Amino acid sequence: MTPMPVETSEEIEIAASLWAVKERPLSPEDEVALRAWLSGDPRRRGALLRAQAGWAALSRAKALGPSEDWQVRPKPRANPSRRGLLAGGGIAAGLAAAALGGLFLLRKEEAVTTTGEIRRLPMSDGSIAAINTESRIRIEMTDAERKVDLVQGEVWFKVARNKARPFVVAAGDARIQAVGTAFSVRRHDSGAEVLVTEGTVKAWLEGDDRPAVWLKAGDRTVIGDRAAKVDHAPDAVDNALAWREGKIALAGKTLSAVAEDYNRYNQVKIVIRDAGLGNERLLGRFSTDDPEGFSDAVAQAFGAEITRTGSVIYIDVKKNATAATELRNPDIVP
Amino acid sequence: MESAPEHIIRWVGSQILPHEADLRAWLHRARLAREDVEDIIQEAYCKIAELSRVDHIASPRGYFFTVAKNIALMRIRRARIVRIESVDEIDRLDVMSDAPSPEQEAAARFELARVMRLISELPARCRKVFEMRKIQGLPQKEIARVMGISETIVENEAAKGLRLILRSMASQDLTTQPNKEPKRDADAGRN
Fold first, then answer.
1. A123 and A190 share a domain?
2. Chain A residues within 8 A of B39 when measuring between CB atoms
3. Interface test mutation site (partner A, options B9, B52, B183, max chain A beta carbons within 10 A)
4. Which of A14, A186, A197, B154 could join A182 via S-S bond, C-beta 3.0 to 4.6 A?
5. Segments forming the whole domain that contains residue B147
6. pLDDT range class, residue B102, cuts 50, 70, 90
C-alpha cells in the first residue's frame, strides 16, 4: 500500500459531509466502507460527528411548530389564506408554500454595532464585513449588484471576486466600488475615508463632476467636498485597521488623538486635562476595550495623575513632577 | 470503528454545535492562530465522539469549552517552543464567565428563521436539493428523477449544502439578529 498523503481538514470535512447525508440505513457495502474510513485518520470521527449532528439538527427545523419568527416573515401582500396555512398546517407544507411565495429571496440585511462592539459578518456572496464600533450598514444583494450603505461608522470589507456583480459601498454621496479586493470605509463629517488593503478600488462622489480616483493596496484618501488626494501609506493603513484585532495602534499619535480613539470604543471616556500632556506621542498597540489599563500605563510613563469619576477618566500632570517624555511601560511598547 | 450512536448525534446537534461559533470566538480571544483554533475544535469533536453517554453533562456548553481549553493547553505545552503568553491567555479564559446571555442562547438555537435564511443563501441547485431533502423529505432517488440529475450529484449537492450551512453558522456572530425584514424608516434599528 502506498502511504497516504496527510489529509487536510477540509478534505476530511467534505468526506464527512458526504457520509452524513447518505440515506440511512446504509447498504452493507457502505457500512464496510464507512468503518474503513473511520479507522483511518483519527480526526475523521470528530468530523463525522459534527456533520451528522448538523444534518440531524437541520431535520429538527422541519418539526418546529409555527413560531412568531415565522409569522412575521410573509411580505405585506402575502394573502391571508396562506398565513392561515402557515399557522395551522404542517410546517413542511408551510415552508414549501413560502418557497413558492418567494420568501427565500430575502437578501436585504441590516447590521448594527454598539459602542465597543466589533463584528465580523459573512455576507451571502462570500464577502466578509468587519464592522467597527458604533456603526450601521444595510446590505442589499441583487443579481446585478452588491450594495452596502454605510449609514454610520466604519467597516472593512473583504470582497469576494465577482466581475458580473459590482460591489459598491455608499457612504453619503461617496461611492466606493471594488471587484475582489479588501478595503475599509469610515464616515466622517467631512466625507468618507477609504483605506485599501488589497487590490484596487474606484471611489467617487455621486453627483459631482470630478473624475473618480483609483486606489491600490496601501492607499488612503477622503472622498468629500474637497478634491480627493491619494496617499500611499501602507503602514498607516495597517495601523488604522488595528481595530480588526481589537487594538488601537498608537503609532506615533498624540495622547489626545489616542484618547479620542479610546472614546469611540468605550462608555468610559478619557479626558486629557493638560495640553502639553495631550501632545505627547505614543508607540505600540493597546486593546481597544481597556481604557483603564491604558490610562494607568500613561500615568506610569508620564508620571501623570489619574482621577476617576463615574464614567470619566481624567488624566492630568502631577503637581511638582516633571513628566517623563518616554514610554517605559513594556505593556505599551511592543 | 463505528460512527457515534444516534442519541449522541442528536445531543451534539442540539447542545454542542450551536455553541461552536462562540467557542471559536472565545479561542480567538486567546490569540491562537486560525489553524490552531480549527484543529482544536476538530479535536474537541473527536473527544466528544468517544462518549457513550452524556446524561452526566449538566452544561454541554461548559463541557465543550472545557474540552477545547484542555486540548489547547496540551497542544501548547507539547510545542517545542512554549509561548508563555499563549498559556497565560488560555489559562485566563474563564469557562464560567462566558455564560451566554439569553439573547445568545436564543440565537444559538437552530431557529426556523435562521435555518431558512441559511438555506436561502445556498447556490440555486444546492438549495433546491437541500429543500427537497430536508424540508419536503423526498428520497434521494425521487429528487434525482425530478431534477434530471444523477443520485451522486444529489448526494454531493446535499453534502455541499450541509457544509455551507455549518460553515456560516460556525462563523456567524451569534448576536446577529435572525434576519428580519429590513425596515424602511431610518430609526428602525436597535437603540
1. yes
2. 9
3. B9
4. A197
5. 108-171
6. low
Nearest of A70, A93, A99 to residue B124 by alpha carbon? A99
Taken in order B34, B35, B41, B44, is the CA torsion positive or negative? negative
The answer to whether the Cβ–Cβ distance between A54 and B182 falls below 8 Å is no
B98 secondary structure, DSSP code: G
Domain hosting A273: range is 247-317
The owner of cell 408551510 is A94
Within B50-121, residue ranges assigned H as helices are 60-78, 84-92, 102-108, 112-120
Residues B84 and B37 both lie in one domain: yes
pTM exceeding the 0.90 threshold for the entire prediction: no
Band the pLDDT of B139: cuts 50, 70, 90: confident
Same domain, yes or no, for A223 and A302? no
pLDDT in tens, A78-134: 333 333 333 333 344 434 333 333 333 335 678 888 888 888 888 878 788 888 888
In a domain, B185, yes or no: no
Read off the pLDDT of each residue in B45-49 and give the average, rounded to a whole number: 94
The reported pLDDT for the residue numbered B84 is: 56
Q: What is the pLDDT of residue A56?
A: 84
Residues 135-194, chain A, touching B (beta carbon < 8 A): 136, 138
B33 and B95 inside one domain: yes
Q: Select the residue of B42, B120, B168 nearest A104 (Cβ to Cβ).
A: B120
Domain of B131, CATH number, reads 1.10.10.10
- Report CA torsion sign: A229, A231, A236, A242: positive
Contacts of B36 (CB under 8 A, 6+ apart): B72, B75
pLDDT at A220: 93
Domain-terminating residue out of A185, A207, A238:
A238
**Please, are residues A119 and B173 in contact by the beta-carbon 8 Å criterion?**
yes
Other C-beta atoms closer than 10 Å to the C-beta of A178 total 25
Contact B16 A53 (CB under 8 A): yes
Residue contact A112–B189, C-beta within 8 A: yes
Contacts of A53 in chain B (CB under 8 A): 9-10, 12-13, 16-17
Chain A contact present for B148, CB below 8 A? no
Query: What is the pLDDT at residue B180?
Result: 35
Query: Has residue A261 got a pLDDT over 60?
Result: yes
Q: Answer yes or no: is B190 within a domain.
A: no
- Using the 3D structure, point to which of B99, B131, B156 is the last residue of a domain: B99
Contacts of B49 in chain A (CB under 8 A): 45-46, 48-49
Total domain count for chain B?
Answer: 2
Q: How do residues A288-302 score in pLDDT, each as one tens digit? A: 888 888 887 777 777
Lowest-confidence region among A148-157, B29-38, B93-102: B93-102
> Which residues of chain A lie closer than 8 angstroms to B179, CB-CB?
106, 109
A334 in a domain, yes or no?
A: no
CB contact at 8 A, A299 and A255: no
Q: How close B152 gets to chain A, by Cα (Å)?
A: 10
